[in-house]
Fold:
Amino acid sequence: MKSAVLLMSLLFLCLAASSEAASPALPKGYAAWKKSERKVVTDKNSLFYGIHYIYADKKAQSGYLADNRFAEGSRIVVEFFTIKKDSSVDGPKNMVVLMQKDKRHTETGGWLFAGFGADGKSSGLDPVSTCFGCHQQEAAKRDFVISTKKDFKL
Ligand code: HEC
Structure:
């Protein structure tokens, strides 16, 4: 009986560990990566309403330069800010999203998609139903990455 309880708690620990691995962390230090120009979307119907900046790590920069062909491990982050009446000033940060090239994620084109709150904590959005459809529609021929080297003046 005791061993059954032990087995159950071990099983529980394993499950807890694997679900942690499934909710990825925001890469530290992305603010030092190559940053896009400031992008302002004033259309209130757009998901991107507000101000955003895209950040690309070294591998992702090479991917943009290769006309959107990205190597395993490439990482791209977008930071979103609310928009104020005076759109020349960024409002508070309200969301961060991540794409990381990871061939295990076959259901989302070989990319890990993840959303975070302003505090950097996972927002637990489902990547297949929340993220991939749009990226597939807009950029199936560009490795599912919608922005291009022009956004970075690369
Ligand atoms: C309604 C369509 C739509 C949905 C849904 C969407 N995105 Fe995007 N995403 C875009 C567009 C459009 C861009 C390009 C923005 C730009 O060029 O400034 C983009 C850009 C990005 C980028 C920068 C790389 C690239 O493709 O240009 C990342 C990272 C990203 N999205 C992650 C996500 C994640 C994670 C989710 C789900 C939580 C998500 N997106 C959901 C439309 C969408």
In short: The pocket of heme C is lined by residues 39, 47, 54, 76, 78, 97-99, 113-115, 125, 130-131, 134-135, 138, 145-147, 151 (CB under 6 Å).
